[in-house]
Amino acid sequence: MENMVNVAVDAMGGDNAPFEIVKGAVEAVNEDKRVRVFLVGREPVIREELKKYTYNEEQMEVVHAEEMIETGEPPVMAIRKKKDSSIVKAMYLVKEGQCDAFVSAGSTGAVLVGGQVIVGRIKGVERPPLAPIIPNAGGVSLLLDCGANVDARPSQLLQFAKMGSIYMESVLGVKNPRVGLVNIGVEEEKGNALTKETYPLLLNCPEINFVGNVEARDIPAGAADVLVCEAFAGNIVLKMLEGVSSVLVKKIRDGMMSSLRSKIGGFLVKPALKQTLKAFSTEEYGGAPLLGLNGLVVKTHGSSNAIEIRHSILQCIAFKEQNINEKIKEQIVLED
Amino acid sequence: MENMVNVAVDAMGGDNAPFEIVKGAVEAVNEDKRVRVFLVGREPVIREELKKYTYNEEQMEVVHAEEMIETGEPPVMAIRKKKDSSIVKAMYLVKEGQCDAFVSAGSTGAVLVGGQVIVGRIKGVERPPLAPIIPNAGGVSLLLDCGANVDARPSQLLQFAKMGSIYMESVLGVKNPRVGLVNIGVEEEKGNALTKETYPLLLNCPEINFVGNVEARDIPAGAADVLVCEAFAGNIVLKMLEGVSSVLVKKIRDGMMSSLRSKIGGFLVKPALKQTLKAFSTEEYGGAPLLGLNGLVVKTHGSSNAIEIRHSILQCIAFKEQNINEKIKEQIVLED
């Protein structure tokens, strides 16, 4: 059992905890023998949920944590004070080496702070980026940084590009991933002070496949596999993707309900559209890794269901088996 | 004829010049007797196009300009050198008071530079924002700034909020428009240095109806009528809106073509969907005004067709009749 991938899972985090979280954990262990899940949270509640399912008990542990960190709580204070919360306890499992990874649908702020303060950064990593996988017309891209720390430096964006390339290639299997710098024009001289200084750093970095500036308009079309930007810009990209998709899908539904003719048509196209729109939902691709830490921390949507939790847990296998953190260490040391 | 609204139109600018531009100009003068268009560009070409239509000749002038500024040209140089270009000549018509406004589908850079250098800023305006009208679930919002000048100051964002409110209320008829600051969270303390400094300025400005921070996710739902941000962020909002819409619509079309059942359904829902999607297209709402200049300059999409040109020309009527620039002057002077 030495080679198993041990994943701590926040059983209390997110809108659908603990039901969907426990369900996703069971599905993950039933799908892959290499994974062992540590469900962290209120033990009686978790045990009650687990009774509903059949699974290999050697692949499932429960770690009791009495407290919970709420979404609205100031994260730094919560991490400091709530030592017996599911997030803090799970972070210590990773820090102390019992677990390789941690998956949470809970407070984004607490996960970001806990990752840095408890799990800790890899030596040389200036800032660990939160890197959601976003859908595009033909596949997916990794968007980093979407974290809470804005106003990044050019050297940090260079590190994002390297870490993102490693993750995209090793975990998602994209060979020689195309790295794009999110900008307001494609020409080298376009942009703000940050992008202008970052461009030559990316251009002259031999470890990445830099394809130049990428305009936001071309992001949904899939102009790059790894999209590099500071967190304010990354947040807008991610949230516009979610917001525009959701409004358009609603408008299309309303349009289909507007006449008898369109209602019949809507009934007929529904199965095909469902498939199409599923591929374009940000919730289909597992959680966002927080890269550059001494262990893997994955933040999933607050609204995560069992599917997203299962995906996120299974992604941790590739992360460990591909030695992502060793690769990151090599490139960061190389840089120093 | 003294009270007519005189609009210079760049007959040579954009992908569909001169055909769609001339057509849009003819449609505008045929729709409203208050407007007179000055088509600026190569006279023989314009005259040839005009022959296709019937219109009141007193409402249509042609001003010859031999040169054209191409989209790829460095704008500052182009404005300086090409004195006989349609953009430069039209800008002088506004500067010298022969025209009240200028509409162009040509080079964005040249229009922005020409607006500042030739038409000139209203005294006290620090930076003229480019303010496209974007569709949302229930109507439209004004997004400013989307121009070429990034890294704005808080005092500039405050001016954007004031000018945007005036435009939204007087030209688009939205009473007491809700002003939102584009940010990565709704709480006051969220964001980067710029948004944190701008928030209290907007909160304490009695001339605007500030509703707080707006997350990008809520922009397509219509969380504010006037969306204030610096140009890098504004560009991402605008381009993501365009990019996501275009990819989703294409995906939906492909989905409808995927089986016989969905093809039949697609045929039935098509008229209803066309209507729905039209309302969500950025090209339905005329061009983007460049606010704060001594005259109105409107930049339309490079791909503008006659409809967008007509809308943009007709918007100039409200701009003049509502004395937008007088109102801007009052508020900017008040501020000094």
Characterization of the model:
The structure is a homodimer of 336-residue chains. Chain A has 336 residues and is of the alpha/beta class. In chain A, helix 6 (154-170) runs antiparallel to helix 11 (324-335) and helix 8 runs antiparallel to helix 9. The radius of gyration of chain A is 20 Å and the shape is globular. In chain A, strand 7 (178-183), helix 7 and strand 8 (209-215) form a beta-alpha-beta unit. The mean pLDDT of chain A is 92. In chain A, the strands form two sheets. A six-stranded mixed β-sheet of chain A has the order 3-2-1-4-11-10, with helices on both faces. Chain A has a five-stranded mixed β-sheet with strand order 5-6-9-7-8, sandwiched between helices. Chain A has helices at 19-31, 43-50, 75-81, 86-95, 108-119, 154-170, 193-203, 231-256, 260-278, 306-321, 324-335, and strands at residues 5-10, 35-41, 60-64, 101-104, 133-135, 140-144, 178-183, 209-215, 226-228, 288-290, 296-299. Chains A and B meet through helix 8 and helix 9 of A and helix 8 and helix 9 of B.
Give a brief description:
Chain A is of the alpha/beta class and 336 residues long. The first copy, chain A, contains eleven helices and eleven strands. In chain A, helix 2 links the parallel strand 2 and strand 3.
